[in-house]
Amino acid sequence: MSATPQITPFHLAFPVDDLAAARHFYGEVLGCPEGRSSAQWIDFDLFGHQIVTHLRPRAAAIVHHNPVDGHDVPIPHFGVVLTMEQWQSLADRLQAANTAFVIEPYIRFKGEVGEQATMFFLDPAGNALEFKAFADMSLIFAK
């Protein structure tokens, strides 16, 4: 029997149009510790993963959505799969900060394989984020 593979941190760099707003949102609202930074970018620790906000003037947004479980899911988006306890704590934190959700926290695919807690919201630059959790982490890739 092989050992369970250790998941290594991913790195994601993405554009923002205001570094101060990104610093507040990712650092204060989401609670991500800040790493290195410059006048053009900021590193954050997102649940052990390295995300980097890079300053870019606002570009015309191309909005796209795909239907999933009766909701319009924004594309592209990124986030982290959390434990149920972490997910609930983050949902509570975001609600206390009066976050405007694209999709309010709820249980998706209820009673089906792949049942999961999920929520979608935007950062100040309009980047879509999804955070989700599974009651049974072994079902993340279940069909």
TrEMBL record:
Domain VOC: 8-134
PROSITE patterns named in the record: VOC
Matches recorded under SUPFAM superfamilies: Glyoxalase/Bleomycin resistance protein/Dihydroxybiphenyl dioxygenase
Record-linked InterPro entries: Glyas_Bleomycin-R_OHBP_Dase (IPR029068), Glyas_Fos-R_dOase_dom (IPR004360), VOC_core (IPR037523)
PANTHER family: PTHR39434, VOC DOMAIN-CONTAINING PROTEIN (PTHR39434:SF1)
Protein name (database record): VOC domain-containing protein
Taxonomic source organism: Granulicella rosea
